[in-house]
Specification:
The chain is α/β, with parallel strands linked by helices. It has 3 domains: 1-100 and 305-389, Isopropylmalate Dehydrogenase, CATH 3.40.718.10; 114-132 and 173-278, Isopropylmalate Dehydrogenase, CATH 3.40.718; 137-172, no CATH class. It has 13 helices and 13 strands.
Length: 389
């Protein structure tokens, strides 16, 4: 029997609830689709608040070592304080392992609530550059000596006037960082036989960062014979949209858009907004991928007020696990999981976050939802991409 070693960071808040429900789905799916020839060996590791409480460090070395050895991991939601405290552990993980691609599939399942008249048109994959932009966390609090030094430099050397009490943040975006991200996303798009690529940016205002992102993305796209910015027949079309207009487009005309390439901050905003089109973050999976390591995670927060109440939606965690199985070449397992989730939702079985959006919706517990998905697991066909089309 082949053993698949997968480190797991269950996460803070509701992490244990959704992990418990998801684990049963993963184990049953592997059993059903491999006939017992493969088995998962879960490696529990910690990060965030649990790690801080246990050893006064946010990311223990044993967690880093386990992830590097396996090259993959599942991660639950980690709490990030707002306005103070420690910096985001999620961002630190991306930087520590150089996870430069964030992948967020957005696909509507029949039975999911949606504000759209025709939600079946929603089938997009949002790629977000994951290591640059304002998310680098290069910033200084207003009134500090560090902020004053930067402001003095801007005023005295660059001739730029800034309020002396301002907080300061830096938005670095590089050709190398953009191009490696765009190449990865284009490679995936071609292999998955998707319909088109849209570069999302705010280059009309931020010309030398987001405008440059647009130009570097187009330059990289020209390296691929399968793509065309001129609409050539038989080629995957490439175009671009201003970020604020893109928000309108995905609501008004979601069927016109397929693969979106975004800078870090805009990709964060846009992927969360698109999740609202398919029921919310509770059903939106995610992956952070680098050259050597990939970490798969639900896209929502830790919701500490619901911790231990067996209420929250594990679908995002479950579908993120399906992405992991695709990543390691177990497409049949991934397909079985997605199919079981879709059938469960179509049967009207959903947690409170979805049930409250549906007329006469009746909520089940997190654990009950996981059990319902397990009951619907079956084997038929293999997945051809990380979020089936």
């Amino acid at each position: 029997m082949e053993r698949i070693r997968i480190p797991v960071i269950a996460g803070d808040g509701t992490g244990e609830d959704i992990w418990s429900a998801s684990r049963e789905v993963f184990e049953e799916a592997v059993l059903k689709t491999t006939g017992g020839t493969k088995q998962i060996e879960w490696i529990p590791v910690t990060a965030g608040l649990k790690a801080l409480d246990a050893g006064n460090v946010l990311l223990p070395q044993e967690t880093v070592d386990a992830i590097l050895e396996s090259t993959i991991a599942l991660k639950g939601p980690l709490t990030t304080p707002v306005g103070g405290g420690f910096r985001s552990v999620n961002v630190y993980l991306r930087q520590r392992f150089d996870l430069y691609v964030c992948m967020r599939p957005i696909r509507w399942f029949k039975g999911l609530p949606s504000p759209l008249v025709n939600p079946q048109a929603v089938d997009m994959v949002i790629f977000r550059e994951n290591t640059e932009d304002l998310y680098r966390g290069i910033e200084w609090k207003g009134g500090t000596a560090e902020a004053k030094t930067v402001i003095d430099f801007l005023r005295n050397v660059m001739g730029v006037e800034v309020d002396p009490d301002s907080g300061i943040g830096i938005k670095p975006m590089s050709p190398a960082g953009t191009r490696r991200f765009v190449r990865w996303a284009i490679d995936w798009t071609i292999k998955a036989a998707r319909r088109g690529i849209t570069i999302v940016h705010k280059g009309n205002i931020m010309k030398y960062t987001e405008g440059a992102f647009r130009e570097w993305a187009y330059e990289t796209a020209r390296e691929f014979d399968d793509l065309s910015a001129e609409g050539a027949a038989g080629k995957i079309p490439v175009n671009d949209r201003i970020a604020d207009n893109m928000f309108m487009q995905v609501i008004a005309r979601p069927g016109d858009y397929d693969v979106l390439l975004c800078p870090n901050l805009n990709g964060d905003y846009l992927s969360d907004a698109c999740a609202a089109l398919i029921g919310g973050l509770g059903v939106a999976p995610g992956a952070n991928i680098g050259a050597d390591v990939a970490i798969f995670e639900p896209t929502h927060g830790s919701a500490p007020k619901y911790a231990g109440r067996d209420m929250v939606n594990p679908t995002s965690f479950i579908l993120s696990g399906a992405m992991l199985f695709d990543h390691i070449g177990m497409g049949e397992t991934a397909s079985a999981i997605r199919r079981a989730v879709e059938e469960t939702i179509q049967a009207g079985i959903m947690t409170y976050d979805l049930a409250r959006q549906v007329r006469d919706g009746k909520a089940v517990r997190c654990s009950e939802y996981g059990e319902a998905v397990v009951r619907r697991l079956s084997v038929s066909g293999a997945s051809t991409e990380t979020q089936g089309r």
